[in-house]
């Protein structure tokens, strides 16, 4: 797998990258700030961290990590195992309640299931998160375990087909391209994989035809297609839906049409729910 495959086709079993210890910023000197650094140390993808490693990755002294860890375990934000600390159930419970992603997943998942059943493709739902592309949902079988992006993972937008759709409709695409040009001028190995001029041309094609594709640039033997999701009647992209299939399949147009129909279905569902929230509702349980 190529380095860029950490995007659309990332496995859960991949080893976590080496993470340099964080340097606490001035506003992180409070107890809450240090707790934020400790919890943030798990963002590299490691599921369990020992005391020393947790201290190294967070930049928080070991004694403070031990004290905070004990309190976070009691509150349910961390759990203790024989091998160290891992994120607790309270994190999962609260994460499911974040309004934007939770609402989008609830509306999108039935349509994604239909798309998965109709195409037998690996289906991903992604949203913009800062300057990255974040995967909110995935649907795939055991045979496609190697081509499923990790839910919650953040990837630089130019590296995946979903991210490039988001970038094509974003206001900062020229800033991203300028940054790539600067990195190439500095000899950055990451920028060597991306040609700014080719990326600009590709983004223009995506806006023109409203879909993007890649073939075996993330994983050998597979290709992916992605389309934008917008509110019905609107033009602001709020998410993308993508389908990944074996590269030798010969039904590209059918896949693209299925993706566009699914995206439109999700957009209508989001618009209906938003409309119902703004309409006055009758009071319940009160006498006339």
Question: Could you describe the 3D structure shown?
Answer:
With 288 residues, the protein is α+β, with helices and mostly antiparallel strands. It folds into 2 domains: 16-89, Winged helix-like DNA-binding domain superfamily/Winged helix DNA-binding domain (Arc Repressor Mutant, subunit A, Orthogonal Bundle); 99-170 and 201-276, Beta-Lactamase (2-Layer Sandwich), CATH 3.30.450.40. It is built from 9 helices and 8 strands. A 6-stranded antiparallel β-sheet has the order 5-4-3-8-7-6, with helices on both faces. A two-stranded antiparallel ribbon has the order 1-2. Helix 6 packs across helix 8 (196-209). The longest helix has 27 residues, at 252-278. The protein is globular.
Main sheet summary: 6 strands, antiparallel
Percent helix, as a range, is 40-55%
User: Would you identify the regions where 5 or more consecutive residues have pLDDT less than 50?
Assistant: 1-24, 279-288
End-to-end distance: 67 Å
Succession of helices and strands:
HHHEEHHEEEHHHEEEH
CATH class of the largest domain, please? Answer: Alpha Beta
Write a brief caption for the model.
The chain has helices at residues 31-40, 51-58, 62-75, 89-95, 99-119, 161-168, 173-185, 196-209, 252-278, and strands at 78-81, 84-87, 122-129, 132-139, 154-156, 212-215, 222-230, 237-246.
């Amino acid at each position: 797998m190529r380095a860029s495959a950490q995007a659309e086709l990332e496995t859960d079993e991949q080893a976590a990258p080496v993470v340099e210890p964080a340097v606490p910023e001035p506003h992180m000197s409070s107890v809450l700030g240090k707790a934020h650094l400790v919890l943030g140390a798990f963002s590299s993808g490691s599921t369990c961290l020992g005391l020393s490693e947790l201290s190294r990755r967070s930049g928080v002294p070991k004694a403070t990590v031990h004290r905070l860890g004990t309190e976070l375990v009691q509150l349910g934000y961390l759990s203790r195992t024989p091998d160290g600390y891992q994120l607790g159930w309270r994190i999962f419970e609260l994460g499911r309640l974040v309004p934007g992603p939770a609402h989008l997943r609830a509306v999108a998942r039935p349509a994604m299931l239909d798309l998965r059943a109709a195409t037998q493709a690996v289906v991903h739902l992604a949203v913009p998160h800062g300057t990255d592309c974040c995967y909110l949902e995935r649907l795939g079988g055991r045979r496609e375990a190697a081509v499923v992006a990790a839910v919650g993972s953040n990837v630089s937008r130019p590296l995946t087909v979903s991210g490039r759709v988001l970038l094509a409709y974003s206001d900062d695409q020229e800033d991203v391209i300028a940054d790539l040009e600067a990195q190439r001028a500095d000899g950055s190995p990451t920028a060597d994989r991306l040609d700014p001029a080719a990326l600009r041309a590709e983004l223009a094609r995506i806006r023109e035809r409203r879909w993007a594709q890649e073939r075996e640039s993330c994983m050998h033997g597979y290709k992916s297609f992605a389309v934008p999701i917008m509110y019905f009647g609107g033009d602001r992209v709020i998410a993308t839906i993508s389908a990944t299939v074996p590269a030798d399949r010969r039904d590209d147009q059918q896949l693209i049409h299925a993706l566009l129909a699914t995206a439109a279905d999700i957009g209508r569902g989001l618009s209906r729910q938003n409309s119902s929230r703004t309409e006055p509702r009758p009071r319940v349980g009160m006498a006339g």
